[in-house]
Amino acid sequence: RDRRRSRSPDEKEERRRRRAKMWDVDPSGNVAPPTGDGTAAVGAGAHAMAAMQQTAMMTAVLQQQAALTRRARRLHVGNLPPGLNTDAIRELFNTTMNAAKLTLDENPCVCDVHMSGDARFSFVEFRSVLECSNALVLDGMQLLGKALKVQRPNDYQAPPPGLDRVIIPQSISAVVTSSTVPNATAGILGMHGANIAAMGGNPAMAAALSAAGVGPTNSVSGLSGAALAAMSMGHGAGAGALASVGAATALGQNHMGLTRRCRRIHVGNLPLGVGLTSEMLKQFFNAALVSANLHDTSKEGDPVVDSMLGTEGKFGFIEFRTIAEATSCIALNNIELGGKQLRIERPRDYAPMPDAMLDELRKQGILGNTSISPDGKDILGTSAAPPPPAAPTSLSASTGLLGLTGLPLGGAAAAPAGPPPINTAAATPVLVLLHMISEKDAGDEAEMSDILEDAKSECQKHGKCSLLSPKPGASGAPGSAVEASAIALKVFAHFATADAALACGKELHGKQFDGRTVVASFVPEATFEELGHLPCYAA
What we know:
Layout (H helix, E strand, L loop, with lengths): L1 H5 L2 H15 L13 H33 L4 E5 L7 H14 L10 E6 L6 E5 L2 H6 L7 E2 L2 E2 L1 E3 L18 H4 L12 H5 L3 H5 L26 H7 L7 H5 L3 H6 L2 H4 L5 E5 L9 H14 L12 E6 L5 E6 L2 H7 L6 E2 L2 E2 L1 E3 L12 H7 L65 E5 L4 H4 L2 H15 L5 E6 L13 H4 L2 E6 L2 H11 L3 E2 L2 E2 L1 E5 L1 H7 L4 E3 L1
Antiparallel strand pairs: 1-3, 1-6, 2-3, 4-5, 7-9, 7-12, 8-9, 10-11, 13-15, 13-18, 14-15, 14-19, 16-17
């Protein structure tokens, strides 16, 4: 004790320095950086802050992309059979989409399902735009004796370029709505797909499918996705047998239902007052395709499997056994029947089949093969397409159908470039449709009546409306909104609201009508009122 007390201040300082140096070296004798408690706390805090900032940025990017794509990631599913709940619909789409290889990976593709109060329809929200678009091929799929209606909702809006494959996690999708779209910036819009993955995001949702089988309540909602997919075939098997059938097998038996929208064509301007029936229409197109050598020669039997007429008999739909034969039938546009030149075009719900399904459809023989649609390809719409082979210029009168012969078959013209996007900001209750009327049509009262009826049948799907189209020579005062140059050869549709007119405009803008591309725009309601004082066709 005395010796410690007798140490001089210099000795104490030297000892303190030596001890300090011992703590500052590692076991190898190298000088190590100080690791005091204060420094470690500061480093950990900075690291945590950086991680929080990265997470916040990634979340902000995903929220922005979720909002910008939400309207393109939702589908309206109608005509639901009774007894379904949201979980059953979610699993049905997850299982069927995965079995059909319509998903980006093997994880569930449905983020959320919203059911109507009466359970007759629902809205299904997908995690990506691409998977949502692919799901459109399920339109018409049979489930418990009902054909599901899978369509775009009325508020559909195409996503910004480059966001089709972005996967939105369910946790993000659940808190983002179309009305919460953040301000778009070029930097954030550019951070998608690989950028999110590089930031450490994991968009795949952890979910496992329930075992196939019937739940304790024996209700439809107790069935697994595989069982529901099997039920969609309508084979009449018991629930236990259905549950044992895989979704892939069930889907293989339902390819005709999945491809129906690609195998149908719309036929307009049908003759009235000649006693035309759906069976006669079916016979007519069977004879037309075979006579023009536009059918699949590798198959036996008739190319048309079904036909139907509209309530007034002015239009109909023809369903073919293959996609190629439906595509080839468009070459018959303007063929004559009963003194009328038929308008033959794709139906408005047409969508091509995803590439992932083509191999299976080829095996099933549903793609088909014709002289102008080899392997089901739509070469009619390409400018580089080879001219169709020589074909008879008219149908033989020996067919005996209505005792009429056909006019020269219409060739397939190159598809025109699409019009620029519709100006949604200028929407008013009055929608204007251009390129539906030719100068020849405008002078034919019967033809104009048919055209306005065709236009009204489409417009009324979005609400009650009235249509006007100026007669040749109709004009207001020079320089006014209704002078001849501003109103000629146009169809004006007046809706109750601007939203209804806009929804209709989005639907018809760019659609083909009698080989012409329709362009939609808007004018003030006062213009429609002024038109009412001029000579017009009305519907």
